[in-house]
C-alpha cells in the first residue's frame, strides 16, 4: 500500500483551484503560489502549478508533488515556471488515491495544443464516461475524475473552433460538482457546475485577471474581488478581456451550493455568492444558543471553524466567550490526515488546552461537526483533564447521515456515528454533559435566499446520484 493511501474514515476536505492571466506578459507563478497558499486549508495532500507564455512558444511548464505548497515549491522552482498564464491546484483526494500521478493541474497534450486543467469537485457519472472513453481507445494516466473532464474537453475541441465551446460541450456530458480553471495556449477559462455546488470567483489587479475557489485567495495576491462566477457560467479571459456564457445555467431556485462551505470548508475571511462566511457562522452560533440554552460559565470554540460559531453562541446567550485552546499552526487539519492513526495523534499535537481558562468552569464547546466522534471525545477528555466541571457540546451542523457524491469525502454510513446512534448515545460515547446539533430548518438562515445542498444531512440530493432513487431530490 502506498504510504499516503487514503483511508476514508474521517470527513474529507475539498480542493482549491487558482488561475492567473497577466495581459502585460509578466510571470504569474509567484501569484499562483500565493493564491494556493491562501487556499491550503482546502487540501493538503498535493499541489501543482502549470504556466504558459501566451506571447512566446506557448509551451506549458509545470511542477507538482505531494505535500504542502511551501514544501513542493521554493524560490528556485518558481523561477523555472516562466509564463503569463498559470493554473494552480491544492488537492485532497476524494476520488483516486493520494499519489503524485493524481496531483493537479493535469497537463494534456493533443492535436490542438496543450490544456492544463484544475478541478474542484466530483462527477457522479465519471465511471460510465471513463468506460465509454476507454472503449474508444483512451488511455488514462490517473484515477481521478478530472482526467475524464480533460479528455472530453480535448475531444470536443477537435469539432469546434474555440476552447470555451469545447468546455461548454463537455459540460453537457459531465454530471456532478465542479469548479474548473482551464488554460489553453491563449486563454484562461473558468467554469462552474449549473447547481453551483463548488465556489469560483473572479479577481483583477491592473491588467491581470484571477480565478479562485475563494475570495480570500484573491485578497492574498493584492487583487480586487470582481464577482462570483455564476452557477452554470463559463468565463473566458483572453488578451481582449473577459467574456461570459450563461447558457448552461439553471433556474436559481434549483441551485444547490454546498452548505458545508459556510459551516466548515471556506476560510472565515471569504465571501461566497455574496454571503460572508464569518457572518454565516455567527448566525449558526446564535441559532444553537436559541435551540440549546444551558447554564454555563464560558463559551469556547474548537479552532478554527468552531471559533466564530462560538462567538455567535456567546453573543446570543450572554455567556462570556473565551479562548480555551492553543493551536499549533504548523499542523494541518486533523480531518485531512489520510489515516485514522495520524488523525488521532495529531489532535494531541495540534491542540493544547489552556488550563487557567477552563479550570472549575462549566464550558459550552462549539464545533462544526461530529463525523466519527473520535476527535470530539479526545478534546472533551482534554478539557475535563484540565479541570472543566462540565462540557456542553454544540455542533454547528446537523448530524451526518448520508454520503456526499459531490467532492466532500463524507465516509460511508457505517463510519458515521450519527447513522447508528441517537444523539443521547453519541453524547455518552463522547463524554459530553449535553449535546445539541444545528436544526436542519435553521440552515437556511446562514445563506439567506441562496439555494443550497444539505444532502449529507437529509438525503435530498439535487441530482441523480449513483445507486439512489432521488424522486425526493432537492427542488
UniProtKB/TrEMBL annotation:
What are the required cofactors? Mg(2+); [4Fe-4S] cluster
Instruction: Could you list this entry's UniProt keywords, alphabetically sorted.
Output: 4Fe-4S, Glutamine amidotransferase, Glycosyltransferase, Iron, Iron-sulfur, Magnesium, Metal-binding, Purine biosynthesis, Transferase
How cofactor binds (record note)?
Binds 1 Mg(2+) ion per subunit. Binds 1 [4Fe-4S] cluster per subunit.
Any one Gene Ontology molecular-function term assigned to this protein's record: amidophosphoribosyltransferase activity
Where does this protein hold [4Fe-4S] cluster?
258, 404, 453, 456
Q: Which residues form the Glutamine amidotransferase type-2 domain?
A: 15-240
Enzyme class of the recorded protein, top EC level? transferase
One GO biological process from the UniProt record? Answer: 'de novo' IMP biosynthetic process
One Pfam family from the record:
Pribosyltran
Q: In which pathway does it act?
A: Purine metabolism; IMP biosynthesis via de novo pathway; N(1)-(5-phospho-D-ribosyl)glycinamide from 5-phospho-alpha-D-ribose 1-diphosphate: step 1/2
Q: What residues sit in the active site? A: 15 (nucleophile)
Function, please?
Answer: Catalyzes the formation of phosphoribosylamine from phosphoribosylpyrophosphate (PRPP) and glutamine.
- NCBIfam families in UniProt: purF (TIGR01134)
Q: What is this protein called?
A: Amidophosphoribosyltransferase
* Annotated source species: Clostridium scindens (strain JCM 10418 / VPI 12708)
This chain is encoded by the gene named purF
Amino acid at each position: 500500500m502506498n504510504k499516503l493511501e487514503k483511508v476514508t474514515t474521517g470527513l474529507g476536505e475539498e480542493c482549491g483551484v487558482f488561475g492567473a492571466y497577466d495581459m502585460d506578459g509578466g510571470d504569474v507563478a509567484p501569484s499562483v503560489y500565493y493564491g494556493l497558499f491562501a487556499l491550503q486549508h482546502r487540501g493538503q495532500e498535493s499541489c501543482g502549478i502549470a504556466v504558459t507564455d501566451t506571447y512566446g512558444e506557448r509551451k506549458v511548464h509545470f511542477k507538482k508533488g505531494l505535500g504542502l505548497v511551501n514544501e513542493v515549491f521554493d524560490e528556485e522552482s518558481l523561477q523555472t515556471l516562466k509564463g503569463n498564464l498559470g493554473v494552480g491546484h491544492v488537492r485532497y483526494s476524494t476520488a483516486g488515491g493520494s499519489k503524485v500521478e493524481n496531483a493537479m493541474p493535469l497537463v494534456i497534450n493533443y492535436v490542438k495544443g496543450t490544456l492544463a486543467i484544475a478541478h474542484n469537485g466530483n462527477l457522479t457519472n465519471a465511471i460510465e464516461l471513463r468506460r465509454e472513453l476507454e472503449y474508444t481507445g483512451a488511455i488514462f494516466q490517473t484515477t481521478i475524475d478530472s482526467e475524464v473532464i480533460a479528455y472530453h474537453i480535448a475531444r470536443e475541441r477537435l469539432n469546434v473552433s474555440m476552447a470555451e465551446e469545447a468546455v461548454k460541450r463537455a459540460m453537457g456530458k459531465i454530471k456532478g460538482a465542479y469548479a474548473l480553471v482551464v488554460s489553453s495556449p491563449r486563454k484562461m477559462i473558468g467554469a462552474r457546475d449549473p447547481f453551483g455546488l463548488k465556489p469560483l470567483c473572479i479577481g483583477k489587479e491592473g491588467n491581470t485577471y484571477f480565478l479562485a475557489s475563494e475570495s480570500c485567495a484573491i485578497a492574498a495576491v493584492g487583487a480586487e474581488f470582481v464577482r462570483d462566477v455564476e452557477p452554470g457560467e463559463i468565463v473566458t479571459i483572453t488578451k481582449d478581456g473577459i467574456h461570459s456564457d450563461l447558457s448552461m445555467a439553471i433556474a436559481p431556485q434549483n441551485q444547490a451550493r454546498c452548505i458545508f462551505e459556510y459551516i466548515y470548508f471556506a476560510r472565515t475571511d471569504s465571501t461566497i455568492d455574496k454571503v460572508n462566511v464569518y457572518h454565516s457562522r455567527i448566525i449558526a452560533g446564535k441559532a444553537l444558543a436559541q435551540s440549546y440554552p444551558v447554564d454555563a460559565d464560558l463559551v469556547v470554540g474548537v479552532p478554527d471553524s468552531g471559533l466564530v460559531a462560538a462567538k455567535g453562541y456567546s453573543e446570543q446567550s450572554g455567556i462570556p466567550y473565551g479562548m480555551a485552546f492553543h493551536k499549533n499552526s504548523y499542523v494541518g487539519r486533523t480531518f485531512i490526515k489520510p489515516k485514522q492513526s495520524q488523525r488521532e495523534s495529531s489532535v494531541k499535537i495540534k491542540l493544547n488546552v489552556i488550563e487557567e481558562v477552563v479550570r472549575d468552569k462549566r464550558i459550552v464547546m462549539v464545533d462544526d461537526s461530529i463525523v466519527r466522534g473520535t476527535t470530539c471525545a479526545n478534546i472533551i477528555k482534554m478539557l475535563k483533564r484540565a479541570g472543566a466541571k462540565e462540557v456542553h457540546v454544540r455542533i454547528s451542523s446537523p448530524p451526518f447521515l448520508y454520503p456526499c457524491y459531490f467532492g466532500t469525502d463524507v465516509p460511508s454510513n457505517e463510519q458515521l456515528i450519527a447513522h447508528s446512534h441517537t444523539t443521547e448515545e453519541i453524547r455518552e460515547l463522547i463524554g459530553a454533559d449535553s449535546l445539541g446539533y444545528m436544526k436542519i430548518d435553521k440552515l437556511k438562515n446562514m445563506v439567506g435566499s441562496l439555494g443550497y445542498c444539505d444532502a449529507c444531512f437529509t438525503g435530498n440530493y439535487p441530482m441523480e446520484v449513483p445507486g439512489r432513487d432521488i424522486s425526493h431530490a432537492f427542488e
